[in-house]
Write a structure and sequence with these properties.
By secondary structure, the protein is α+β, with helices and mostly antiparallel strands. It has one domain. Helix 1 runs parallel beside helix 2. It starts with 6 loop residues before the first helix and ends with a helix. The relative contact order is 0.17.
Length: 115
């Protein structure tokens, strides 16, 4: 029988996954930014863009870790992930999930093995 994770163990695991995703972004030369999206004078959403030819991913820093994981993994799926090494467990649990349009942050928790 599988032992139930404590909330601090789950939080630590989520933070490790997020750190691994940030390392994947770095290997792809993608800059990840955590910004206060409500601080802008106009409506800004999480997502990726190119600025001066460089890829960037912006995520609202007020989002919980599991939502950051969902957004970052979804945006990274747009890149050629076959050109870099991604640890097999991370590739299986995060990058082989349903497309972003079919998953919401609430359902992504189960699909990414974060439950």
């Amino acid at each position: 029988m599988k032992a139930r994770q404590t909330s601090s163990e789950k939080r630590l695991r989520e933070e490790q996954i997020l750190k691994a995703l940030e390392e994947v972004a770095e290997r792809l030369s993608v800059r990840v930014h955590y910004e206060d999206m409500k601080a802008f004078e106009f409506h800004v959403q999480d997502g990726s863009c190119k600025l001066k030819g460089e890829a960037h991913i912006y995520i609202d820093r007020k989002r919980p870790t599991k939502e950051r994981i969902h957004i970052l993994s979804g945006e990274l799926r747009r890149f050629d992930l076959d050109t870099i090494y991604i640890p097999p467990l991370l590739r299986e649990k995060v990058f082989r999930t349903a497309p972003l349009t079919q998953a919401s942050p609430d359902t992504a928790e189960t699909k990414m093995g974060l439950d």
